[in-house]
Amino acid sequence: MSDRQERMLQAFRDYEARGARVLVDHSIVGIPVGSRLRRIIRKPNGWWIWMATTDFIHGTYLDVRNDGQITRVTIREDEGPEEFVIRPSDDVITRNA
Question: What is the span of the domain harbouring residue 54?
Fold first, then answer.
């Protein structure tokens, strides 16, 4: 596990240790200032929250999964998807506590 990943997990553990014992409290997701939500789509394992797109094929969305993991996905024309996990799953957070 990289140092950056370990720091991120530690931040989630610290947050929980300060009194946010219920994982429901971890359900708050910050949306970048100036973004406008375009569409929310229910998927079998969670939700896609489109933040920047014109055609709902290319652009940026949050992949919010039922297990608590949130990934920011950006798809550009003629490129593969760029994915960044902004919140690990509930299991990863509690297992690494």
Answer: 3-95
